[in-house]
Amino acid sequence: MTAQQRIVVINPNANEAVTRGLEHALAPLSALGCPQIVCRTLTEGPFGIETQADVESVTLPLKRFVESDAEAAAFVIACYSDPGLHVCREATARPVFGIAEAGVLTALARADRFGVIAIRTRSIPRHMRYLRQMGLTERLAGERALEMSVAETASGEGTLASMITVGRELRDGDGAGAIVLGCAGMAAHRRPLEDELGIPVIDPTQAAVAMAYGALVFH
Predict the structure, then answer these.
(1) 1 is a domain residue
(2) Which class for 64: exposed (0-12), middle (13-18), buried (19 or more C-beta within 10 A)?
(3) Are residues 199 and 183 in the same domain?
(4) Residues spanned by the domain of 45
(5) 115 and 90 share one domain
(6) Which CATH number is 170's domain given?
(7) How many other C-beta atoms are found inside a 10 Å radius of the C-beta of residue 101?
């Protein structure tokens, strides 16, 4: 690994507050200095990715983004639906990580069964389809929604209190031994939520960047 290598974390929605939240959440890894971690916003994306139509709308823009960046050593797609993941992997020989995939795999290393906090109920069927593709539905304790927008999870009042309520339901009602945050916009709340719940809380973007970091270090 060389000092010039960098991991590019792509926020597929156009909300700069989410991108700034990603930078804050990734600051401990960024402090290591090498590889450099750079967060970018996909300006063509919707303000929040909350529907299947939103997911599909950013697939080709993400592919073009990856193809146009010749300097990045690895990419992280920072949306819990992992939009464009396979298209981007097809477009480059460099590693591309999706945060949903990385977050779930990290949770499985911490607990037998995991729960997911979703932004809205309508997101859950999309997440369940993905878990079925991964063959991991039997390890899911449950998924519960905040009924908030991406923007609200990033900077809205009362977000942490709602996450604590839903997290307790997943822990006590569903039997989750670890919690995965089902949106990149929730990153700022990981530590206080984990302190409150007393079980591992996985920020999927941190998990994906850690995997990218490892892939470059041990390449």
Answers:
(1) no
(2) middle
(3) yes
(4) 6-98+206-217
(5) no
(6) 3.40.50.12500
(7) 21
The tokens of 28 are what? 């401990």
Note whether 94 and 7 are within 8 A (CB): no
pTM (2 decimals)? 0.93
DSSP E strands, the chain? 6-11, 36-41, 74-77, 96-98, 114-118, 140-145, 178-181, 201-202
Residue 33's alpha-carbon distances to 6, 26, 78, 112, 119, in angstroms, are: 10, 12, 20, 34, 32
Do 86 and 144 share a structural domain?
no
Do residues 148 and 84 share a domain? no
Q: How many CB atoms lie within 10 A of CB 60?
A: 12
> pLDDT tens-digit profile of 133-191?
999 999 999 999 999 988 788 766 789 999 999 999 999 999 999 999 999 888 889 99
Report how far residue 68's alpha carbon sits from residue 79's, in angstroms, rounded to the nearest whole number: 20
Quote the CA–CA distance of 41 and 19 in Å, as a whole number: 6
If you search the block for the tokens 């069927």, which residue do you land on? Answer: 125
Per-residue pLDDT at 1: 46
159 SS3 class: helix
Q: 181 - beta bridge partners?
A: 117
Residues 188-205 as b/e (b if ≥16 CB within 10 A, e otherwise) read bbbeebbebbebbbbbbb
**Whether the Cβ atoms of residue 60 and residue 84 lie closer than 8 Å to each other:** yes
- In this prediction, the residues of the chain whose per-residue pLDDT falls under 50 are 1-3
